[in-house]
C-alpha cells in the first residue's frame, strides 16, 4: 500500500472514530434524560452510533500496513473497537431504558463489583481454574495424545475406541459431574476428573485424524529413505498432525473451563466460580454473577489466545499461514 493511500485510510478511520465518539457522547447525554424525554430519540441515536462504529471497524479492516508491528496492533485494535462498541451500547441501553439491575446490570456496575471483590474473585479463580482446570486439562489432553499415538498402528483399537469416544463426548455433563463428586469428593479433584472426561476424547480423535493427514507420497518417500516407524512418526506424521492437535487444544481450553464451572454446581467447598455463580444468583446479586462470568471469559480468551500464538509459532509452514 502506498504512503498516500495509507495516510488517507488512516485519516478516514480517524474521522470515523471522532464521529463514533460524538455518537457515544450523544448516547451518554440521552441516557441521563428523564424517561419521558427519551423515546425515539434514544433509539435513533443508538442506531446512528452502531452505524458509525460499524463504519469505523470497516475502515480499520481495510487498512493494509506493511510492518509486522503495525499489522499486530491493527489485529488487536479491530476487535477491541468492536468490543468497546458493544459495551457502550449495553451501558447506554441499560441506563437509557432503566433496566432493573437484577435483570441486566450495566457494564460499569459489573466493573465496580469486580474492583470491590478482587480477593473473592481471585480465590474462586485459583480454586476453579488454577487447580481443577489446569490439572484436568493437562491430564485429559496429555493422556488423549499418548493413547492416540499408541493405538495409531492398531486398526482394531482405532475402530473400537473412536466410536466409544464419540459416545463419551455426547454424555451430558450434568450427569457425569455428580458421579465424579461421589467418586473423588467435593474438592477440586472431582472437577478435574470431569475436565479429564471432557477433554480426553476430543484430543484422541483429533490426534488420530492428524496422524493420518500425511500424504501417501510423503510416507512413500520416508520408506524410500529407509526411515523407521519412529523416525517417520517424529519427522513426518507428528508435524503433519500439529494443526489437528492444536485444534483439539483450543477446543478443550473452553470445554475444560465450562466443565469445571458446571461441575461445581453439584458439590464444592464454599469457593469456586461455579459455587459463587450458584450462590449469588440465589441472592439476586446479578452483578457478582456477571463479574464471575467476565473473569471466566477473560481466562478462557487468554488461554485460547496463547494457544493460537503457540500454534502460529509451531505451524508457520502450514498453507493457512502463507500469504497469497
CATH class of the largest domain: Mainly Alpha
Radius of gyration from CA coordinates: 25 Å
Counted by DSSP, the helix tally is 12
- In CATH, the architecture of the largest domain is Orthogonal Bundle
CATH superfamily of the largest domain: MetI-like
Kindly state the percentage of residues in helix.
over 70%
Q: How many domains, as an integer?
A: 2
Low-confidence stretches: none
Beta strand %:
under 5%
Mean pLDDT, as a whole number?
79
Tell me what you see in this structure.
This protein is 80% helix and 0% strand. The chain has 324 residues and is mainly alpha-helical. It has 2 domains: 3-99; 114-321, MetI-like fold, CATH 1.10.3720. The mean pLDDT is 79.
Task: Give a nutshell description of this structure.
With 324 residues, this protein is mostly helical. The protein is 80% helix and 0% strand. It folds into 2 domains: 3-99; 114-321, MetI-like (MetI-like fold, Orthogonal Bundle), CATH 1.10.3720.
Amino acid at each position: 500500500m502506498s504512503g498516500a493511500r495509507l495516510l488517507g485510510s488512516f485519516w478516514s478511520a480517524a474521522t470515523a472514530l471522532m464521529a463514533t465518539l460524538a455518537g457515544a457522547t450523544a448516547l451518554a447525554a440521552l441516557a441521563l434524560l428523564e424517561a419521558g424525554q427519551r423515546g425515539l430519540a434514544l433509539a435513533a441515536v443508538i442506531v446512528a452510533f452502531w452505524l458509525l462504529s460499524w463504519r469505523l471497524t470497516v475502515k480499520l479492516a481495510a487498512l493494509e500496513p506493511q510492518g509486522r508491528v503495525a499489522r499486530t496492533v491493527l489485529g488487536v485494535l479491530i476487535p477491541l473497537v468492536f468490543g468497546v462498541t458493544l459495551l457502550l451500547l449495553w451501558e447506554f441501553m441499560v441506563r437509557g431504558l432503566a433496566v432493573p439491575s437484577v435483570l441486566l446490570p450495566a457494564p460499569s456496575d459489573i466493573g465496580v463489583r469486580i474492583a470491590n471483590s478482587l480477593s473473592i474473585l481471585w480465590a474462586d479463580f485459583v480454586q476453579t481454574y488454577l487447580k481443577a482446570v489446569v490439572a484436568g486439562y493437562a491430564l485429559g489432553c496429555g493422556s488423549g495424545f499418548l493413547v492416540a499415538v499408541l493405538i495409531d498402528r492398531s486398526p482394531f483399537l482405532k475402530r473400537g475406541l473412536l466410536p466409544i469416544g464419540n459416545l463419551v463426548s455426547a454424555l451430558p455433563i450434568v450427569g457425569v459431574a455428580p458421579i465424579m463428586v461421589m467418586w473423588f469428593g467435593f474438592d477440586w479433584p472431582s472437577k478435574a476428573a470431569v475436565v479429564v472426561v471432557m477433554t480426553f476424547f476430543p484430543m484422541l480423535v483429533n490426534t488420530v485424524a492428524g496422524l493420518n493427514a500425511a500424504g501417501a507420497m510423503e510416507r512413500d518417500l520416508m520408506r524410500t529413505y529407509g526411515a523407521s516407524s519412529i523416525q517417520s512418526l517424529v519427522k513426518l506424521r507428528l508435524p503433519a498432525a500439529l494443526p489437528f492437535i492444536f485444534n483439539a487444544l483450543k477446543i478443550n481450553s473452553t470445554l475444560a473451563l465450562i466443565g469445571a464451572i458446571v461441575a461445581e454446581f453439584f458439590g464444592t467447598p464454599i469457593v469456586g466460580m461455579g459455587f459463587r455463580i450458584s450462590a449469588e444468583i440465589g441472592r439476586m446479586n446479578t452483578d457478582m454473577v456477571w463479574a464471575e462470568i467476565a473473569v471466566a471469559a477473560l481466562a478462557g480468551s487468554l488461554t485460547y489466545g496463547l494457544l493460537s500464538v503457540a500454534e502460529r509459532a509451531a505451524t508457520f509452514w502450514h498453507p493457512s499461514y502463507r500469504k497469497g
